[in-house]
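Q:
My hope is that you can spare some time for a protein that puzzles me. I hope you can help me see how the letters and the tokens relate. Thank you; the sequence and its tokens follow:
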Amino acid sequence: MHSGDMNATLRGRRHAAIRSLYPDVKIPTPAEEAADRDAAYTQLNAIVVLLLGRAKDKARYPLVFEENCNYGFRRNLYGMRWIGFAVALICAAALGLWLYLLFSSHQPVPVITPFLEAVNVAMMPVWLFWVNEAAVRRGADLYADRFFEMLDTARDPA
């Protein structure tokens, strides 16, 4: 959109690429966008749908595919954040109790158990502080960048 934070030069270049790919598709002008933002959004959304069909070619646009996977992974992690935190907390508590019981009864401790305890304890702040909306937004922005960069090489009609 003209009101977005995209660089004006890039926006102009990408609009020109869209016009060359789809000459019959109208791109809203800044005045049209200001007059009816919803209509402009609907029109631009239709253009994105056309471009998404083109971007599905993994062989031709591997970076678009990779960033889409990255974004989906981040989004899914964020959706499961509280479940992940709860599992890490429960496992850390259970392993901690088991380790305490083994140490207090002077029994041998399996070598992997303290390592697993450390992983569970380390994962709790990861789930709380790294898996957040900002991480998902970074993934979305990277995907959008690769998606629009596709226009630099997608000059032939589909």
Notes: The chain is about 75% helix and 0% strand.
